[in-house]
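Ticket #4471: complex job returned nothing on first submit. Input attached below:
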Amino acid sequence: MNFRNIGVIISREYMTRVRKKSFLVITFVVPVLMALLCIVPSVIMLMSKDKCKTVEVLDESGIVLPYLTDSDIVVYKDCTGIDLDSLKAGVSSENGNDAVLHISAYDPQTRNVTATVYSVKPVGIDIKEDISSKAEDAVEECRMRSYDIENLDVIMKEIKADVPVATYTLGEDGQEKITSSEVYMIISLVLTMVIYMFIAMFSGMVMSSVIEEKSSKVVEVLVSSVKSIELMFGKIIGVACVALTQFFLWIVLAIVLISVAGMFVDFDSLSQGAQQMTQMASVPGMDSVADPTAALMQATEDNPELSAIISTLRDLDYGSIIFSFVVYFILGYLLYASLFAAIGSAVENEGDSNQLQMPVTIPLLIGFFIAFYAFKAPDSQLAFWGSMIPFTSPMVMLARIPFGVPAWELALSIGLLLITFVVFAWISARIYKVGILVSGKKSTFKDLWKWLKQK
Amino acid sequence: MSIISCRDVRKTFGQKVALDNVSIEIPEGKIFGLLGPNGAGKTTLIRIINRITMPDSGEIIFNGHPITQTDVERIGYLPEERGLYRKMKVGEQAVYFARLKGMSAHDAQQELKKWFVHFGIQQWWNKKVEELSKGMAQKVQFITTVVHKPKLLILDEPFSGFDPVNAQLIRDEILRLKDEGATIVLSTHNMESVEELCDEIALINKSRLVITGGVDEIRHKYGNNNVELVYTGNALDASGSPFKVISDEDQMGRHTAVLSIGEGADTSAVLSDLLAKGVTINSFRELVPRMNDIFIKLVTEE
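Support reply: We reran it on our side without changes. The output follows.
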């Protein structure tokens, strides 16, 4: 191996890609698109709120009207005593009467009322639900009274239960931390998507580059100066550097975006709330049963969900997540890129590569799908084996990482991946060496096998 | 002194024998023609010399020692299947190839600028290859092959893709490089340029070496000891002469005859016989076969 030559190759592969416009576009536009993807739904929710409607109510039962309290989507107007037909005639958005609600007299037989809404334009589902739930409350109340049991309403209120579930993780030092499973799930999914995308995109890039050199016939000129193995690894490493550059630019960009966002949102007060909770939860000497309860009470008082999310985000081990991402990306990419390089060496245009690609893309996809479900049961048999088998482990292990993985599993999985890479890199280099100089006919797996055995 | 000796080089691909114990000596400072029909094994031999592929047995001696990867930096190879990165700028690309041959970026830049000026193509430096015509790209390719001042230059069909003017330019460059001390291996199907440029040749057919030696030597060897005689006057009478008349064409009293003088015959004896007969000689020259004819003869005989 001539490392000087590899260096020259790496720098060409790197520079030609990083200077491309498409690299800049992907580096800066993708994070913006991702951010938009997060913001847009809430903006849509905000924008889609209907303006307040006025509903005139003719309540013949006499029990529902007190329950019809105004909200920011609907205002109820008491129109008792006015004839229904004349109310209907008066319905029009222009003079502020959007609908008429007619409630029939309480029927002792069915012990129910019927509600009818008349409007020119159909009323929204929000208003229908508002009326229905309030009328149900009124009828339930009425039925309750009919039992004539003293303080039944109080009893019922007491019976009604709402059980909040808070999840804590136990640290080795006995420290308990409030966590949000949802956050783990999202991080697991994001990691899976990103590593899958990175491996598929960049090893595909290696393949295209091999095909380009072969079809433009540069390759024979190149291998008269450098050994084919130097060319192959120079290319693979060069593209890996592009990927890592992109990854680190994204991290920098994320930090910038978060700090910019921090100027508008008061993260400090939010995380202080969460901090208090964790502190309360971990005061030593406190009874372990009483301890979470106290935290829970505190949590339910303000915004428990948000506090848990912030606490989880704050306590995530970003160092080990980024480290695992980089390690698994590099190893997974090296494995797949060398396989793709071997495939690229066998064809002269991208179209011909489809059939040969199959055995390589399928394990990649399987890994992606296993990883996609790993968050539901991160320690299941499927997830465990998926994170051990080298072809799927980069994706599946990363999906498991946020939930915590024992060190021995991590070491074993990385070791297996490394060995597999070495073996397949050797195989690929042999196929590549012969493949790049074969021209004319379309190659098959039989040819690849022949090349592998060739001296 | 040979710059390259191929000793019993054998290479097989599966069942197919590509080179069957081929031994060739390429003398230093000469232009050596590597000839043979398509598929004879020339490219395989060139690739073995360049260490692109390894022989099954036999060895390549470079300057007296078994060839190593460092020696390859002293070789410039222009493959028949050649190309450039289409999206890369011409100058940048040329520097890249030169650096892969061991030059520093700075030296490469300087040398290349000289060559670009020499070929009058300085204005292409910042153009992308896809903007160039095929002939233009071939010129750039030629420069990238020779820029690192190789001791040995291997050119596979160097004239293909060039118009006659540029082909002449390349021909002149090849001769100039030879004068500067480079050894050149020329693989081509153009027999005229073999006669014009090559000092020695080797002919490979069906993976075997058929013949190797000096061009003149081979042409004489395959000659039939015929001479062409142009004379004026009456038709020649060959009775009692040390030659036979094979053909005699009469064009209004100007004759063009082919005489067979037999193996080892003395041309001066023929001439004095002709003079004694009082023939008016306009021209008298030895007839050597064209390389083209020798090539066809050897390849079809096999």
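The two ends of chain B are 31 Å apart (CA to CA). Closing as resolved unless it happens again.
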